[in-house]
Amino acid sequence: MSGAEHSGHSFIGAPRSAAQLWAGARRHAGRVRSAGAGSRFVGVLALLTGVLLVAGLVTQMVLDRRLTATESIRERSVAALIAAERLRAGLAGADATAASNVFAWVTLAPSSLSPAERRSFYDRVKADDFYAGDHSGDVSAGIAGDLTGDAAPGGAGDGAAGADPAAAANPYSAALRGAETALLDLREIDPGACDRARDPESTHCLMTRIATLIPEYTGLVAAAAANTRAGNTVGGAYQNLASDLMTRSILGQTDQLVAAYGDRVDQDYRQATSGAAEGVLLGALGGVLVALVGAQVYVFRRTNRMLNLGLVTATILVVGAGSAGLVLLHGQGERLVTAQRSDYVPTTLLAASRTLALQARTCEFLSLISLGNGENADRCFEDAVSALGYTPDGQPKGPSSGGGTLTAGLIALPDRFAGQRAELGGDLGRWLQVRARAVATLQEPPPTAPAGDSTGTGAAGTTGPTAFGRAIEGTLASPHFERFVGGTDELLAQGTDSFAAELRAAARDVRLLTGIVVGAAVLAVLCAGLGIGSRIREYR
Amino acid sequence: MSAPRAVRIGLAALLLLLPGGLSACGTTGSPLPYTAGTRAAAPVPSPASVPAGQGAAGQDAQCVPRRSEQPVEALTQPGAHAQRVAEIEERQVLRVGVVAEARPFASMNWHTGVPEGFEIELAREIARAIFGDPSRVEIHAVDTRDREKALAEDEVDVVIGTMTMTCARKERVNFSGVYFEASFTLLVSRNSGLSTVADLSGRRVCSSQGSTSIGKILNLPGFPEGRPEPVPVSRVGSADCLAALQRGEVDAVASDDTILAGMEQQDPTVRVLGREAFAGASAAELATLDEPYGMAVARTDLGLTGPAAEARRKADSDLVAFLNRMLLDMFTDGRWQRLYADFLSDVPGIQAHLPTERQPHWPDGQVGQVG
After folding, report:
1. How far is A30 from chain B (nearest CA, A)?
2. Mind telling me how many Å the CA of B218 is from chain A's nearest CA?
3. pLDDT value at position B49?
């Protein structure tokens, strides 16, 4: 008697009660039991096929998410992080070069040189240091227009396609172009407009602010250069303003960009190495095995044959695919962990070290510009060098001091880079020693004048280079800083390539696993179909 | 039925292994190494980081700003100097602090890498007087605000840095006699329409930190009463003030006429206001515009008492008297005039007056009529 009937409210179309459903199910089960064995085998095969297909589909979906996360590390988050680091290094490099350009004029006109020597000096300065050269026909004008990016849909980055930073005529232009190109690349990797009202600290707003400040910075540098060229003391004030803007505002925003993209790498890494994929794979494997073993037992009971070859093959296929999956997933995770340890960590540390070193270089020049009176510039230099993990006289700081970016980066470098590790540390140390000697030169008393030389005004300018001139000459002539930056660039390029290769290999592992799972599921369905199909035909 | 039981046991074992397998699959994050991310911005020289201030207020009622020690009879020869000069001679080098952005008094020539200017040459003259060798001088750049500190901390022997002799400063340093008579004035943009101090009402006026000009901005002679006063803005150096004027951050720069004239040389779009800018000021008020430059040396008697202090005062006085003799010799033998011709004669707005013309009994501090 149904519940509805019991309550006296039964009518046609009313939902049936649980008791009615249970009774219906029992009737259906009875019909199945009373059905022929062939029909039962069809039902088992249908159930098994369903389980296999569902398990394969769920596994494929989970693997697809993992593949997407793995590829996102390389194509999105790490690419953005690398571009942000390039931006940071380009800006810091531009500032260091701009500060050094104040001294370009010192070497242009030493009065003691012969005309031939003077021409040689001029050509060297022209080629290496100061002049921007003729870029009237290149794409630089387009770059500036695209930098802010918000109002140019589809246009961002167009100007960068043909821009080769290395083609710029001098280090200042090259560094600035490198930074601008990196900013355009970032716009492509991380497209979107700045919404100041809702998220003023978004990466898009940071990029917009940086793009807005760069022209202001270049304007100050241009004013500094023009005044210094004319011999005006206000040139130094403009250079200080420019470096102040760069350090406090532009590089500060760029640091935030680097940190934001670093967080994204972290998030993608967590998704790409999440244990959920292994969990789902093991769950699906367990479910399929239960279904296969259950089917095997059922077939055994009905046929009294020990093993059904088709089901055994399907089981072997599933176990094989599952084991391969676990191995591949574990390998993918290990690969990512190894890439993180041996490539990502040293690369990010070295990139930060390069920026710090360039900032220290700027402060070194600003200190010289202030004629040894740059207390703030000296402190800025010491802070940057300390953050690198070194003392101002070029010695690595002890472990008790907590180390620094470069010392940590060099330690994190894999052993295959042992030679470059030593070279980098050596170059940085020697650069710092040159700087320490320049400081000492500025403090040493002038040499005793030759006998009879008491000619009065201008004596110091005509009896050879002054202490200041020697300090500048020593600072500019030292190849160690450029070697350090060059060596860091080389290591960064290698580390970035190696990291990208590892990420590609990790993605390949997941892609291969997806193929194996789909193939194994299809084959297992076929084998199960063949194995149970023969019983169906036998009992029909 | 043994086979199904075995299957069940196998399945149970598999299910037992699953959690172990799951727990073996850990999630790996990839945070940026702590040293590679955001850093606190390293400080770099900031032109506007220190608030404006004024020197100490306590002053001796008997103090005469221009007064200094009477010169020694004649310059002593090397080996026969008094104590503090002998100490410099023993060190083999004279350390001189200059404000290296105050062209034409002292600035770096970035084309030659050599500092040059009127005060640089004065430093060489002192070295010549002590060692017989003008090259034995070590030039230290100092900010306007750090001149007294450089002396107190024995970083330099003498500061020759456009330093106005005031009674407040005399409590901390000793001054030579005046070596140049400058005057406070203002620099404005040529097309700004600002021509008197009254026009600066409520406007931003820049001065370098540690200079006497900051106090004068709020007490401009001839400034009409009841009008909003100019707003003082400070920057580290006078060149920073010029940059601020050129960038429109301030409307005027307040400093000494000599320094401002040097700025006018650098930038033809600015001009130095003359005395007519202070129209309406009394003679006494105009006298407050005087900026007599003196060479500053450390007072080594500070903090001492009794005979020790007396001995140090004597040594300090001897050094100042030595410097005054050298200056007086320069005034009389034409070297001062030659330096003036070399560095200041082509600077518009600077009137050449030997300090002895203003003080007939130089360096007694008593100002007379200039011819």
Report:
1. 24
2. 25
3. 34
